[in-house]
Specification:
alpha+beta
Amino acid sequence: MLKGLQKGLSLPTEKMIPSFACLRDYGNTSCSTTWYSMAYIESQLGVKKNERVLQLGVGGEYLCYYAILETKGCITEGDT
């Protein structure tokens, strides 16, 4: 599923690393997977003020969830 989304959205591999890491570390956890991926992004990559992150969750049949999150402050130490 992840490789299909990556191909369909023309995403580079580095943008998919949080999703693949989450799948490796926690398995398929359904809708909480997007929050585990967000935690990975915050802790490993950092998120700067006003940066936007797209969360996309796809389930069986036609189930789809998405959210666009925008930070209001810095999450990474030392960023302004």
